[in-house]
Specification:
The protein has 191 residues and is of the alpha+beta class. Helix content is 32%, strand content 27%. It has six helices and seven strands, in the order E-H-H-E-E-E-H-E-H-H-E-E-H. Strands 1-2-3-4-5-7-6 form a seven-stranded mixed beta sheet, with helices on both faces. The chain is globular, with a radius of gyration of 17 Å. It starts with a strand and ends with a helix. The chain binds coenzyme A (COA). The site of coenzyme A (COA) has 17 residues, from strand 4, helix 3 and helix 5.
Length: 191
């Protein structure tokens, strides 16, 4: 498997990128319903930020995008998808590493993302988050179907907030972030 810039790939690979979005997010209300919408998303990400592809024998195994926020001090990881039959083999981890390296190179202080709970997969679903948002976030747990927040947590991302009802009543978006330079900051001597 090689990780390469999606923008430099032949049209056939970019078409696979769009198809993967449709397939990978088919259960999500905020997913891409058809190839046309997904092709627009690929172009949008390539136009505003950057994207990397995981490729094996001209087949796209997965891809990741990065979009600037806060004048480039923050980079959003969006989207990320790995072909179903290639999951749990380190493809997602390799793509996130490529995203982080490139975002850091472009000046990121923070990597960020939103991971929807639109299927009652976590303890943040179906409850009144407004009552005590910090407590709900501190007590966040997966309800058994391995929501992707577990994947991101494994890669060092922490929950920094949530958007109640982002996907309908009781279906929040979970915000996670990671410092791009934490180790460097720790190495700096105290003033
Ligand atoms: C989430 C996704 C990108 C993970 O990709 P992947 O290639 O399967 O992940 P990796 O194999 O690199 O996993 C890295 C680590 O995370 C763990 N992991 C991966 N998915 C996990 C999940 N859903 N729950 C818990 N742990 C998970 C792996 O076991 C591995 O652990 P390790 O540290 O012991 O090696 C993939 O499942 C996917 O494309 N899902 C559909 C689209 C999606 O949900 N995208 C994210 C939306 S925000």
């Amino acid at each position: 498997m090689t990780i390469a810039e999606l923008g430099g790939q032949p049209d056939a690979v970019r078409e696979q990128a769009a198809a993967l979005l449709v397939d990978g997010f088919d259960q999500h209300p905020r997913g891409w319903r058809d190839l046309e919408a997904a092709t627009g998303e690929v172009s949008h990400v390539l136009g505003r930020g950057f994207a990397f592809a995981a490729i094996e024998d001209a087949r796209l195994l997965g891809w990741i995008g990065g979009l600037p926020e806060y004048e480039g001090r923050v980079w959003e990881l969006h989207p990320l998808v790995v072909r179903r039959e290639h999951r749990l083999r380190g493809v997602g981890r390799a793509l996130v590493a490529a995203f982080e390296d490139e975002a850091r190179r472009r000046g990121a202080l923070t990597f960020t993302l939103g991971t929807d709970d639109d299927g009652g997969q976590t303890s943040l679903a179906g409850v009144d988050l407004y009552v005590d948002i910090p407590r709900h976030i501190a007590a966040l747990r997966d309800l058994g179907s391995r929501h992707p927040f577990l994947f991101y947590r494994r890669l060092g991302y922490v929950v920094t907030g949530c958007m109640p009802d982002a996907n309908g009543p009781g279906r929040p978006d979970i915000y996670m972030s990671k410092s791009a330079g934490r180790e460097d900051r720790r190495r700096q001597p105290a003033e």
